[in-house]
Amino acid sequence: MSKRWRETRILACVVAGVTLAGCASPGCDPNQAGFLSGIGNASSGCYARRTEAYRQQLQLSIEQREQARAGAIDAAARQQAEEANLEQLRQRLSVLDRQMLNLQGRLNAARRRAGVNEASLRRAEAALKEFARQRAAAAAAPTSEAVAAAEAQQRQAEDNIRALLIAQ
């Protein structure tokens, strides 16, 4: 073989490669490419770019999944904190129930005594009635504010009943 023959073969391979590169399928889909267009896609870097795009999409999907997982953990922690807060509010309401029964008993005892100041009795009854209303509202919509309002009204009712008992 002569040198010329080798050069011709090399030139033919280069021309074939350029021709094959021109045959690359525009979609760069290995499932749609034939033998020649597949070789052209591989030699043009189309498959490498496509593979890199898939890797980037995979990385983005992994990051999104991790963000969603972190969000779910945060949501679970918030839910748990809300449940603990609600349980605390229920316990405070239970204490208010016991205090209401105690105040009602003290008010009933004051009514049975002779010489009760009627104005003080009405104030104590009104304060206890308002306490019961505030407590019911707090039970219907248990928020820190509602329970605090019921607790404040409980203190007011207790003060009125104490004043009634002292005035006797």
Key attributes of the depicted protein:
168 residues; mainly alpha; 5 helices; 0% strand
- Into which percentage range does the β-strand content fall? under 5%
Tell me the series of helices and strands, N- to C-terminal.
HHHHH
How many β-strand runs? 0
The total tally of domains equals 1
Supply the helix-strand structural class: mainly alpha
Distance between the first and last residues' Cα: 134 Å
Radius of gyration: 42 Å
Helical segment count? 5
**Major sheet, described briefly?**
none
Catalogue the unreliable spans: 20-24
Describe this structure in words.
The protein is mainly α. The chain has one domain. 86% of the residues lie in helices and 0% in strands. The protein has five helices and no strands. The chain has helices at residues 3-22, 35-44, 46-112, 118-140, 144-167. Helix 1 packs across helix 2 (35-44), helix 3 packs antiparallel against helix 4 and helix 3 packs parallel to helix 5. Mean pLDDT is 84; it is low at 20-24.
